[in-house]
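Complex 600.
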Amino acid sequence: MAAVATVLLPSAMHRVSPSSLTRSLAFSIGDDGFRLRSPFNSRRVRDSSSGNSRIAVHCVSNTGTSRDKLFPLASTSTPCRTIHSGFKQSFPWRELSARFVATEAVANDAVGVPSLPQEEMPPRVYTWPYKKNPRVCILGGGFGGLYTALRLESLAWPDDKKPQVLLVDQAERFVFKPMLYEILSGGTYMPKPIECIIDMGNIYSKRWIQTISAEVDSWEIAPRFADLLSNTAVQFVQDRVKVLQPCDHLGINGSAKSDSAGTVLLQSGLLIEYDWLVLALGSETKLDVVPGSAEYALPFSTLEDALKLDSKLRQLERRNFSKGSPISVCIVGCGYAGVELAATVAERLQDRGVVRAINVESMICPTAPPGNREAALKVLTSRKVELLLGYFVRSIQKTSDSDSEKYILELQPAERGMQSQILETDLVLWTVGSKPLLSELEPREQPLELPLNARGQAETDETLRVKGHPRIFALGDSSSLRDLKGKILPPTAQVAFQQADFTGWNLWAAINDRPLLPFRFQNLGEMMTLGQSDAAVSPSFIDGLTLEGPIGHTARKIAYLIRLPTDEHRVKVGLSWLTKSAIQSIASVQDTLTKIVSGS
Ligand SMILES: Cc1cc2nc3c(=O)[nH]c(=O)nc-3n(C[C@H](O)[C@H](O)[C@H](O)COP(=O)(O)OP(=O)(O)OC[C@H]3O[C@@H](n4cnc5c(N)ncnc54)[C@H](O)[C@@H]3O)c2cc1C
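Predicted structure with flavin-adenine dinucleotide bound:
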């Protein structure tokens, strides 16, 4: 007879085999504080007083004592006869009132096929390599998370205190976001032995080949975590964080007896127990802002976004090449991201397209240093970017003409005296607003105990510990901290990068019972890219100085090269950029010579 044990979930009955039950029971059971160990031991025993069969399950309490817990068994073979009910089963991802229903065959420990649906599958517990060393779990491998992990690696630790570090990210690659624009900006000349290529039935000239090679390759600005961490002791798990269940605020951590300071459940069902948690999940573009924006506008926040935009532009470039129809791109927002995108896309399209940038404010980059703003304005004007300032986008709709998709933007003036406008475009890029991803985690039935501000960022104290949670640090776009003047620090890589240094240090201090340091942000200045050989850089240490054009571009690239995550990667990328710039110089000399020889 098939072995069946049933866990009654709130809404439906799910059948699980003993093997999956093994895992589903790996957490606290009953209200007596006893939990089951994973994998648990169970055996069939006979109750001496009644003579009935029982399943004895080996349970361990939070204080380390253990005992067998007896579950009665049905003496008949009738499936699903209720034999034990009413105790509270606490699963880490939700509170369940579970009722166990078993048949005789359970005791024979027969093997069955788990039949819980994926989302209800019980978690597997992550096995840390060492029993005693502190367990640090870092969520998010961006500027905050990855650099914290590397900082922890670089510090000197007493042997027994050296933490085991686990980095979790949903993506396979770390992304150096400030350089995502370079994926779009072509220009590196790649000599080819042929003068034309045939692509999808169309013939493209050498000029086409020149424009399709990007200024940077994906691997340079988005290296794989596995490669970056290969020479470190940091473990990496690629998975999506689903649920947080901290318990350090309950005061059960920090004592020698505590098991963990909380758990993190990942999408795959992996459950991580930790002693220290670092929250660095970053943020993404907030798209759901006006009717049609979520459906029709493209964000520009991840590597996938950049690659998707690149591919859309290629499609439009092909259409332009074969049919001659000009390409129209509308960019919503003229903060740093909007202006950098506008400059990059306009440079790429040249006279094949029209770029419009729309901003509700009456100026571009209102918070930027004046030198950066003026440099950007000069470049946008020289590339004929149309600025529609003082407008907000009311809606985006899609229309289709005979052979292409078009979008209609309805613009409403922010001030009186201006006319509403309707724009037709091939592509809408959205750069306004962002949403911290910490607040996007799946809600638990109990409210998440973290103090989040209205934007969904965790509020921290000066040492970057989440308020009320001595074992959780938060940094980067996931966190909210005010500077000494009371201003919330901006969600920038510069802030996250500096906070990672402090988070690493403060974890060291906390684990070694030393005083923690208050974080102080040092504004080093602001940089923006404006195309393949243009940028604006305003360093904070020389008042009023702005490096523009190729000098600004080189200064920005060197600054970012220095900030790449590891020495190995820095060297590889440095060599690659040197090679590309050598090829580019040779190509431009070759072009000049050709022009002189041909007299053009
Ligand atoms: C296009 C662009 C250009 C920018 N340019 C600049 C600039 O020039 N200068 C500057 O200072 N700042 C710039 N920024 C801002 C800067 O990149 C961010 O402020 C910075 O990356 C924040 O670091 P972080 O560690 O908080 O988050 P991120 O670097 O975004 O890292 C978060 C990580 O968490 C992972 N993650 C998110 N949710 C989950 C989940 N549920 N499960 C698992 N993993 C998850 C993500 O995959 C990501 O790897 C730019 C941002 C963008 C998008």
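The chain has three domains: 5-122, 135-175+222-284+436-511, 177-220+287-432+528-584.
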